[in-house]
Amino acid sequence: MDDDRELALDVDGDLHCRAGHELTLVVAIPKGQSSGHFLLAYNHQTGTTAEIHGTYGWFVQEYKIGANQRAWWLGTAVVMALVAPVVYFLASGLRLQQAVAGAVSNPTSRPIMFGGLLVGAFVGVFVAQVAPLVVNLPRITRLRKHLGRIGRVLKRQDRGKLSVGR
After folding, report:
1. pTM across the whole model
2. What average pLDDT does the structure give for the chain?
3. What is the pLDDT of residue 160?
Protein backbone atom coordinates (compact mmCIF):
# COMPACT_ATOMS: atom_id res chain seq x y z
CA MET A 1 0.00 0.00 0.00
CA ASP A 2 1.12 3.63 -0.34
CA ASP A 3 1.52 3.82 3.45
CA ASP A 4 3.90 0.78 3.50
CA ARG A 5 1.24 -1.63 4.78
CA GLU A 6 1.03 -5.03 3.10
CA LEU A 7 -2.20 -6.61 1.91
CA ALA A 8 -2.66 -10.34 1.29
CA LEU A 9 -5.07 -11.33 -1.49
CA ASP A 10 -6.38 -14.69 -2.64
CA VAL A 11 -6.61 -14.32 -6.39
CA ASP A 12 -8.40 -16.68 -8.79
CA GLY A 13 -6.44 -16.81 -12.00
CA ASP A 14 -3.13 -15.17 -12.77
CA LEU A 15 -2.19 -11.81 -11.37
CA HIS A 16 1.54 -11.33 -11.45
CA CYS A 17 2.88 -8.42 -9.47
CA ARG A 18 5.90 -7.41 -7.47
CA ALA A 19 7.12 -4.55 -5.35
CA GLY A 20 6.69 -1.29 -7.19
CA HIS A 21 3.76 -2.36 -9.33
CA GLU A 22 0.62 -0.27 -9.06
CA LEU A 23 -2.63 -2.20 -8.50
CA THR A 24 -6.19 -0.98 -8.60
CA LEU A 25 -8.53 -3.08 -6.44
CA VAL A 26 -12.29 -3.01 -6.86
CA VAL A 27 -14.24 -3.76 -3.68
CA ALA A 28 -17.94 -4.44 -3.04
CA ILE A 29 -19.29 -3.05 0.23
CA PRO A 30 -22.85 -4.10 1.15
CA LYS A 31 -25.24 -1.33 2.20
CA GLY A 32 -24.92 -0.41 5.85
CA GLN A 33 -21.46 -1.95 6.26
CA SER A 34 -18.06 -0.31 6.43
CA SER A 35 -16.05 -3.05 4.71
CA GLY A 36 -16.56 -5.57 1.96
CA HIS A 37 -14.90 -8.04 -0.39
CA PHE A 38 -12.32 -7.40 -3.07
CA LEU A 39 -13.66 -8.36 -6.49
CA LEU A 40 -11.11 -7.36 -9.07
CA ALA A 41 -7.40 -6.55 -9.21
CA TYR A 42 -5.82 -4.67 -12.08
CA ASN A 43 -2.04 -4.39 -12.51
CA HIS A 44 -1.21 -1.11 -14.25
CA GLN A 45 2.30 -2.19 -15.21
CA THR A 46 1.31 -5.46 -16.90
CA GLY A 47 -2.20 -4.45 -18.00
CA THR A 48 -3.66 -7.65 -16.55
CA THR A 49 -6.87 -8.12 -14.61
CA ALA A 50 -7.74 -10.94 -12.21
CA GLU A 51 -10.91 -11.75 -10.35
CA ILE A 52 -10.66 -12.16 -6.62
CA HIS A 53 -13.05 -14.62 -4.92
CA GLY A 54 -14.10 -15.95 -8.33
CA THR A 55 -16.26 -18.65 -6.72
CA TYR A 56 -18.55 -15.97 -5.28
CA GLY A 57 -19.27 -18.05 -2.18
CA TRP A 58 -19.04 -14.85 -0.14
CA PHE A 59 -21.66 -13.25 -2.41
CA VAL A 60 -24.16 -16.03 -1.72
CA GLN A 61 -23.49 -15.74 2.01
CA GLU A 62 -23.81 -11.95 2.07
CA TYR A 63 -26.98 -11.88 -0.02
CA LYS A 64 -28.51 -15.19 1.02
CA ILE A 65 -32.23 -15.51 0.34
CA GLY A 66 -34.48 -17.67 2.49
CA ALA A 67 -33.93 -19.69 5.64
CA ASN A 68 -30.55 -20.71 6.91
CA GLN A 69 -29.00 -23.94 5.73
CA ARG A 70 -29.74 -25.92 8.90
CA ALA A 71 -33.46 -25.17 8.55
CA TRP A 72 -33.43 -26.41 4.94
CA TRP A 73 -31.58 -29.56 5.95
CA LEU A 74 -33.68 -30.38 9.00
CA GLY A 75 -36.99 -29.46 7.39
CA THR A 76 -36.36 -31.59 4.33
CA ALA A 77 -35.27 -34.55 6.46
CA VAL A 78 -38.39 -34.39 8.64
CA VAL A 79 -40.75 -33.99 5.69
CA MET A 80 -39.17 -36.91 3.84
CA ALA A 81 -39.35 -39.08 6.98
CA LEU A 82 -43.08 -38.36 7.31
CA VAL A 83 -43.92 -38.65 3.63
CA ALA A 84 -41.89 -41.78 2.78
CA PRO A 85 -44.21 -44.30 4.51
CA VAL A 86 -47.30 -42.69 2.99
CA VAL A 87 -45.75 -42.88 -0.48
CA TYR A 88 -44.77 -46.50 0.16
CA PHE A 89 -48.32 -47.49 1.11
CA LEU A 90 -49.79 -45.50 -1.78
CA ALA A 91 -47.47 -47.38 -4.15
CA SER A 92 -48.74 -50.67 -2.75
CA GLY A 93 -52.25 -49.79 -3.97
CA LEU A 94 -53.91 -48.29 -0.88
CA ARG A 95 -56.01 -45.16 -1.03
CA LEU A 96 -54.62 -41.98 0.55
CA GLN A 97 -56.62 -42.30 3.80
CA GLN A 98 -55.56 -45.93 4.22
CA ALA A 99 -51.95 -45.09 3.34
CA VAL A 100 -51.83 -42.36 6.01
CA ALA A 101 -53.40 -44.70 8.58
CA GLY A 102 -50.94 -47.45 7.65
CA ALA A 103 -47.99 -45.06 7.89
CA VAL A 104 -49.05 -44.10 11.42
CA SER A 105 -50.00 -47.52 12.78
CA ASN A 106 -48.10 -50.16 10.78
CA PRO A 107 -44.80 -51.30 12.38
CA THR A 108 -43.21 -51.73 8.94
CA SER A 109 -43.42 -47.97 8.45
CA ARG A 110 -40.64 -47.29 11.01
CA PRO A 111 -37.76 -48.52 8.80
CA ILE A 112 -39.35 -46.70 5.87
CA MET A 113 -39.45 -43.52 7.98
CA PHE A 114 -35.77 -43.99 8.85
CA GLY A 115 -34.94 -44.42 5.17
CA GLY A 116 -36.97 -41.32 4.37
CA LEU A 117 -35.10 -39.45 7.09
CA LEU A 118 -31.74 -40.42 5.56
CA VAL A 119 -32.84 -39.55 2.04
CA GLY A 120 -34.33 -36.30 3.32
CA ALA A 121 -31.10 -35.40 5.09
CA PHE A 122 -29.11 -35.84 1.88
CA VAL A 123 -31.70 -33.99 -0.19
CA GLY A 124 -31.81 -31.23 2.43
CA VAL A 125 -28.05 -30.75 2.38
CA PHE A 126 -28.12 -30.64 -1.42
CA VAL A 127 -30.97 -28.11 -1.45
CA ALA A 128 -29.28 -25.99 1.23
CA GLN A 129 -26.12 -25.79 -0.87
CA VAL A 130 -27.62 -25.46 -4.34
CA ALA A 131 -30.71 -23.30 -3.76
CA PRO A 132 -28.82 -20.14 -2.74
CA LEU A 133 -26.50 -20.50 -5.73
CA VAL A 134 -29.40 -20.99 -8.15
CA VAL A 135 -31.33 -18.07 -6.67
CA ASN A 136 -28.27 -15.83 -6.89
CA LEU A 137 -27.01 -17.00 -10.29
CA PRO A 138 -28.53 -14.04 -12.20
CA ARG A 139 -26.89 -11.62 -9.75
CA ILE A 140 -23.54 -13.38 -10.03
CA THR A 141 -23.78 -13.28 -13.83
CA ARG A 142 -24.48 -9.53 -13.75
CA LEU A 143 -21.62 -9.00 -11.31
CA ARG A 144 -19.17 -10.84 -13.57
CA LYS A 145 -20.34 -8.79 -16.57
CA HIS A 146 -19.79 -5.54 -14.64
CA LEU A 147 -16.34 -6.69 -13.50
CA GLY A 148 -15.41 -7.32 -17.13
CA ARG A 149 -16.54 -3.81 -18.04
CA ILE A 150 -14.58 -2.29 -15.16
CA GLY A 151 -11.45 -4.17 -16.29
CA ARG A 152 -11.86 -2.86 -19.85
CA VAL A 153 -12.32 0.72 -18.59
CA LEU A 154 -9.14 0.45 -16.49
CA LYS A 155 -7.19 -0.80 -19.51
CA ARG A 156 -8.51 2.03 -21.72
CA GLN A 157 -7.61 4.63 -19.10
CA ASP A 158 -4.11 3.17 -18.80
CA ARG A 159 -3.63 3.26 -22.58
CA GLY A 160 -4.60 6.91 -22.59
CA LYS A 161 -2.21 7.73 -19.76
CA LEU A 162 0.62 5.77 -21.33
CA SER A 163 0.17 7.53 -24.66
CA VAL A 164 0.74 10.95 -23.07
CA GLY A 165 3.99 9.90 -21.43
CA ARG A 166 2.99 8.63 -18.03
Report:
1. 0.49
2. 76
3. 55
